[in-house]
C-alpha cells in the first residue's frame, strides 16, 4: 500500500473510527485501525466486535493498493503531532507502516489486514431518517438514566420505538424513566429495538451538531446501522423485551407545579451539599400555595431553600434523590417545566409546558 | 460571631487559604478553615502544619466578634454556589455556623477556634522583595525537577540562594539540575534555605501574574514567610545541606548548538511516541555540521526527525531521556536556546542565547 493524503483530513477520520477501537483487550488486533486502499478509495475501519465504524472514502492519492492494521493509539498520536500538510503512508511485505511528513519519518509495525474482523453485513434498503442533531439531543437527554449494572441487560441500553411519523427513545434504570420524542423525516414502519448504551455514547461523540446533516438508521434482527455520510457505525442490538414503561406514566395528578428550571437546579445543588453521599440523603420538597421549600439534613448540618413557583392543586410534601432531579432538569433545554405530583409515595413526572416532546418520571424516597 | 460580607470577595479569599488546607488527615481540624472576627477585622486561616496561610482583613461588617473552624470543602462549595451578593455568617454557642444568602440558609456544624493550630511566629523585620510574577515564573521554571522520592529529603525542596542584588532557585533530582536567577528589589544579605516543593507548588497558585504586585520573603532558621499583601503564607523549611550543584556546571564544552526551542520540543515529542515508557527508551541526538537528527527505536518501531540548527565545534552523538529535555525546554520562554555538549557520556547544558538568567543540566543515557 502507498498513498498520500492531507494530514488534517486523516486526523479527522481517525478521530471518528477511534470511537469503535477497543481500549484494553486480549485481542491486540481490536486495538488497531484498519487502513484499506482499493478501488473504492482509502477507508479506515475500527471494530471492537460490539461496535464497528467504517469511514467514507478519504480524499487520497492512492499509488499502490493494499491493507494494513496499525495500533490506533500510536497512529493517532503520530498523525496528531505531525508538522506538515501531506502525509505519505506506505507498507512493506512485513506490514511495517512508514509514515512520512515534513522532516519526520516513522516506521511502525502493523498487522495484516486479513486478521482484522469484518463488520457485520447490514442491508441498507429501508431507512429511518432524521437530523443528526435531533438524534444527538435525544440521546444526550436520556442516556444518563440507563442502568449501570447488568442485573437486567435490556436496561443497559435504550429503547428505540419507531412509528410512522415519529420516533421515541426511552431509558429506565429502575428509579426513573427518561422519554424523548421527535419527528422522523422518513420512516419505514413500526419497529422497536434496544441499542446498547455504549454504542449511543460513542455515536453521540460523532453525530453532527449542524441542522443540515441527516442520519439514516437501518435495522435488522441483530444489528443497527447508522449512516452519517462521513462514516457508518454498526452495532449489535440487545436481545430481550424492554420493560413496559408506558403504564408507569399516569395521567392523574393532584398537584401541578410550574417552575423555573435553572432556579430549581441551583437550589437542589445547594441543598444536596449537606449530604456527603446524595444517593442516600434525600432532599425534601414542601409544595405550598405559592412557593416550594427544599430542605436537606445530615449529620453535617441543614440546608433550607425557597423558590417561588406556580402551584395548582393540593399542598404536598415529598422526598427525592436530588441527583435524579438535577440530571433530568439539566437535560431539558426549555426554561420552565411542569411537574406533576400525586402523593408522597407516588412517582412524579416532569413535563414540558407545551407539547409532548419529553417526559421524565422519578420515584420518590421515603422520608 | 456575626458578620456580613460580599460573597465574591469571600470566595476569593477562601480559594487562597484552601491551598493550606489538608485534604486527608487524621486530625479533622486541619480540614477546616478558621474564621476570625476581631479588632483586626475578618480573617481566614488554613494550616496543614507544614504550611499555613492567613488572609489580610476581608472587608466585612462585623456585628459580633468571635472565632469558629468550619470544614473547608463544604464551606467552599456552599459559598461558591450561593446566589446573592451579601452573605451573613453567624455562630451559636455550640459552634453551629449559619450562612444566609438570598433565599438560601445553611446551618453547618463547626468546631471551636481554640482547637485550631496557630501559625508559627515569624518576625517580619528584614525582607527580601521581588515581583510576585518573577517568583512565580522562577518556581514554574524549576519545580519539575525536584526529586519525587524521599531518599534525599533536601532534594524534595528547592534551594533559595539569596545574594545582595539577586536571588536564585535550584532544583536537583539526581538526573538533572534546573537553575533560575532573578534580581531582588530589596535584599537583607546572603542566606540560603531549602523550601519544600509542596509549599512552592501551592504558593505558585496564589502568586499574582501582575507585574505590579510584590512579594516579601522573611526567613528564620526553621521557617519562611511569604507576604503577598492579600495573605501571608508560612512554611517550614527543610533542614540539611543541599548538594553542591555549582561544580556540576562546567565552563568547558566541545559543541555548541543554537536551536529553535519549539521545533526541538515538537521533534522530541514525536520521537518519544515510539517508546511506550519514555523514561526507559532514550532518544538519540546526532549533531552534524548543519543539522541535528533525533532518532528513537523500540519494539514498536522507529522514529526519525531532522531539524536545522547552527553548530559550532565537533560532531557528536549522545542519548537522553526525552522527557527531561522536553520539560526543561518547555519551561523556557525564549524562542532560541544554546545547548553545550562535551562528550557522549558527559552532561549537556541548556543556556540562554544572551545573559545568565537560567541554566539546565541534563545527564545523558548510555546508548
UniProtKB/TrEMBL annotation, chains A, B:
GO terms for molecular function: 3'-5' exonuclease activity; DNA binding; DNA-directed DNA polymerase activity. SUPFAM superfamilies: DNA clamp. Residues 1-120 form the DNA polymerase III beta sliding clamp N-terminal domain. Residues 129-242 form the DNA polymerase III beta sliding clamp central domain. The keyword Chloroplast does not apply. InterPro entries: DNA_clamp_sf, DNA_polIII_beta, DNA_polIII_beta_C, DNA_polIII_beta_cen, DNA_polIII_beta_N. It is found in: Cytoplasm. One of its GO terms (cellular component) is cytoplasm. Residues 250-366 form the DNA polymerase III beta sliding clamp C-terminal domain. Keywords: Cytoplasm, DNA replication, DNA-binding, DNA-directed DNA polymerase, Nucleotidyltransferase, Transferase. The keyword Nucleotidyltransferase applies. One of its GO terms (biological process) is DNA strand elongation involved in DNA replication. Gene3D superfamilies: 3.70.10.10, DNA Polymerase III, subunit A, domain 2 (3.10.150.10). It comes from the Bacteria. Forms a ring-shaped head-to-tail homodimer around DNA. Confers DNA tethering and processivity to DNA polymerases and other proteins. Acts as a clamp, forming a ring around DNA (a reaction catalyzed by the clamp-loading complex) which diffuses in an ATP-independent manner freely and bidirectionally along dsDNA. Initially characterized for its ability to contact the catalytic subunit of DNA polymerase III (Pol III), a complex, multichain enzyme responsible for most of the replicative synthesis in bacteria; Pol III exhibits 3'-5' exonuclease proofreading activity. Belongs to the beta sliding clamp family. This is Beta sliding clamp. It comes from Anaerotignum propionicum DSM 1682. The gene is dnaN.
